[in-house]
Design a protein that fits this description.
This protein is of the alpha/beta class. The protein is built from 8 helices and 8 strands, in the order αβββαβαβααβαββαα. About 55% of the residues lie in helices and about 10% in strands. Helix 3 links the parallel strand 4 and strand 5. The protein starts with 5 loop residues before the first helix and ends with a helix. The protein has a domain of about 55 residues: Helix hairpin bin (Helix Hairpins). Helix 2 runs parallel beside helix 7, helix 3 packs parallel to helix 7 and helix 4 crosses helix 5.
Length: about 280
């Protein structure tokens, strides 16, 4: 079953591209027609490619990988944050700080600093400082939280990224490509779809359109997490069952060895004499 019906896509305005004068020729395969100087995207392809992208997101999640949600344009910020949090995934909605992925070691240091400031604020250490220093720390924490708060639990590079607008987030896209991190993204009529591993041709400006696709990707991730957990539980149960069977087999073998009669030296000599008498009388 499709993740979104054609009617859903139409209601969300997913078919509206940009002005024909602003198009990228590489988007030609995904354009259905042009009307009043605006490109209209082919929603049948959008529907099919959304399913492929969502399946990919689900596979990444089922393997325990993080999918980083990126959407810093105003109309995308709230829905990207909400859907990422619902799926338990990291997100960036304020601005992309250069090197967030390619220089992750430095970013990890900033995350540790943010955690330290949070901890000292919670345990009362900050309250003991002078007013000016408290104010400086408060501003520092506010800035760090605004820029890095969404990735505070991302201990390593993400397994994939979901990007709302690859033109606006071109630095993030470049970093992901350099690191061979798979990219799932909306591609409007003014961008190069070849930059993306799992493109979804769609309107990346309308709030309803952004919400529809972001929600679909989040749903797929949640489904993938559940199926991955089931598979891992099944694998653990199977391993435990095999181990139990091996223990039972070892115990049965040991019991069989204990049940076998033990022949002593005296028994052997008596048996030999008896056999000798039988041989003489034969």
């Amino acid at each position: 079953m499709a993740r979104a019906s054609i009617e859903d896509l139409l209601r969300a305005g997913a078919h509206f591209g940009h002005l024909t004068s602003r198009w990228n020729p590489k988007m030609a395969p995904y354009i259905f027609m042009q009307r009043n100087g605006i490109h209209i995207l082919d929603l049948k392809q959008t529907q099919a490619l959304l399913d492929q992208a969502a399946d990919a997101a689900g596979r990444f999640a089922s393997k325990g990988r993080k999918v980083l949600f990126i959407g810093t344009k105003k109309q995308a910020q709230n829905v990207v944050r909400e859907e990422a949090e619902r799926a338990g995934m990291p997100f960036v909605v304020d601005r992309w700080q250069g090197g967030m992925m390619t220089n992750f070691a430095t970013i990890r240091g900033s995350l540790r600093r943010m955690e330290t400031l949070r901890r000292e604020e919670a345990d009362g250490t900050t309250a003991k400082l002078k007013k000016k220093e408290r104010l400086m720390r408060s501003r520092e924490l506010e800035k760090l939280d605004r820029v890095l708060g969404g990735i505070s639990d991302m201990g390593k590079l993400p397994g994939a990224v979901f990007v709302v607008d690859i033109k606006r987030e071109h630095i993030a896209v470049d970093e992901a490509r350099k690191l061979n991190i798979p990219i799932i993204a909306l591609v409007d009529s003014n961008v190069d779809p070849d930059l993306v591993d799992f493109p979804i041709p769609a309107n990346d400006d309308a709030m309803k359109s952004v919400a529809l696709f972001t929600r679909a990707i989040a749903d797929a991730i949640i489904e993938g997490q559940k199926s991955g957990a089931i598979e891992r539980d099944a694998a653990v149960a199977e391993a435990q069952s095999r181990a139990a069977d091996e223990v039972k087999a070892d115990q049965a073998e040991a019991a069989a060895e204990e049940a076998e009669p033990v022949t002593t030296m005296a028994d052997a000599e008596a048996e030999a004499k008896t056999q000798a008498i039988i041989d003489k009388t034969a």
